[in-house]
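User: Please predict the structure of the protein below. I'd like the answer in structure-token form so I can feed it into my own downstream comparison script.

Assistant: Understood. Taking the following sequence of 464 residues as input:
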Amino acid sequence: MRILKSNTVLGILISSLIVFCTGVAQADDSGKECINPELLRYALSQYQFEDINGFGEVTKTYNEMDVCDQGIFKVALQGIDYLRKMPNGKIPSNFQTLISKEGGINFLKKRIKKIQIETSNDSDCEESTAARVFFSEADQGIMHLCPSMKKSTPNQAAGFLVHEARHIDGFAHVDCTHGVLESTQGACDNTYQEQGSYGISLGFQFQVYMTTKNEAVKEESRSNIVLGALNNFNKAPLGLQKGGIFLDEDNILAFYQGNQEYRLAEFTDKTIGLTLHAGLPTVFFENGTVTKYDFTREWILREGTLINAFSGMSPSEREEIEDIYANVDNCFLFKNELKCMDGDGFLTYRFNELKPVAFSDRYQSWDNSLSLLMGDGKVYSMPKPKDFAATRDADLKVDGKAKTYPNITSFAEMENGYIMGISNKGFMMVKKSKDTPWVRAKEFGDFKMKKIVPYYWSKRLEDL
């Protein structure tokens, strides 16, 4: 057993016990109930609601006749109601924000007077944007809601409302340095302490999580806290440190940040691969099951389109998987071919001259570039799966954005500036600066590794 420089955190063993869980609750479209009349009257007394077209022209003003609306208006009112009913119990001072002091609904009322719903196909709301404000309209207290808002749960809708309301105070975003939004301009806050829009929305989730008695609500807020802390701040809060989560040949999953290893789990089932799926480290097993590390040690077995496709493969096919990619495209890499999901089936690219080694994905980023590290040490951009059939190896171009190192199949930068990488022979390597060579990491001895992915981790976040 390798020697660890700190006390290890031993994970719960996982075998073939199946626990059915679909994760965070999604917006419930099954019911078509009308809006509570009291809520409707309250909301209309506090805010002016309008529909606007792609030219910014008002096409509708909402009134009490819209009591049975089933669109964005209803979702917005569910978010407002959530803020009205948010527990206002006291939480530890280091988690308190203006939300804690003013209360969720008072925070919103103080800043927002008019809510405009963008419903036209001409709207320039991005697909992933739920709400937004324009600084030119800040003095009027106007917030815009985008079509994707309709997919929100009441908790999410409330979070979006207070997030955008904080922008009214003049807080803008900066470019992200890591996380799923790294490829998106102006999508992060520098720190939690400065209490910008992401700080306020995270503070809202802390307030809910630490005061609610409802376990389902608590679970949803905790999930939002984890993803928010990981992805929305350039200086990660809650003691999160930069490093990498790795999976070794002995089925051990662990985090390493340059000088300490924290063991997360030692699985009893044989593992096949590790990737990031929806921002969380995801482990695939030879028996067809899949689990995620969500900063708990519950190791719930998961379901979903990608997971179902993996589980539907034959045992012999799963054994041949070299690497897994989960992003806009979901793909499995084999020795001489690449299979990417297309509906319920796969589209396949077969290599002739090039030898694929591993995905050179951008891990947590929403940058949906599909690239592969090849045996010649170069990273090549792959076409979209629909274009596989019309593409040959000679058509592939070197990915100029990808960072790569000779004979290193995956790597992650550490808190201390070191870069840890997995060699093509499976050994953990270390590069202490850009001018020093790769050498074997002595603390890992002869243990063989499957993959390392860049990540942030802290025991404080796990202990929430």
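That's the full token string. Residues 130 and 459 are 31 Å apart (CA to CA).
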